[in-house]
Task: structure prediction
Amino acid sequence: MEEKFFKKYKKILAIDEVGRGALAGPFYVGGLLGDFKFYEKIRELEIKDSKKLKENKRKEIYKRIIALGPKFKIIKFTNKEIDKFGIGWCFKKSIEILYKEFKPNYILIDGKPIKIEIISGKAKFIVHGDEKVKLISAISIISKILRDKYMIKLDKYYPFYNFKLNKGYGTKEHILAIKKYGISKHHRLSFIKNIIQV
Result:
């Protein structure tokens, strides 16, 4: 899908997020800057939406992407920042930061269109972009791997929530653990209050 954009733009910034719906842990928004030469390299990989890849396959592709030396950055928001500003604000702020840092010719963003003045006319939002656009798939995999690593580290300190498996998402087991043990300092109060009384 990128090919038609590369006919018009030299450098494209791909943006995707991970951790939006989690009850605990940070929200990651990743940006990857690619030119046509980089796109040709990742086009050869079995790359698709990170959520649809088995963990071992995702790790393998992650290593192959990193070996290509991609230009990328991950913007991270803590659970406290999510509670204070809202997930939508965090996402918009991330896009603004990534745009200012990379100064791309064009941006491809996974998700439904939202209004962001600074990128008006310079970006396209693509629903299921992580399935349709290789550059978005690549940053999707990078972002997920890095956030998963963080949640696995947290699991060592809070084993009863089983973060190493649920990555902070609201599985039945995770919700039961919250009811039994209460919340940790990494849980998002603004998300949890809609599910259980805390």
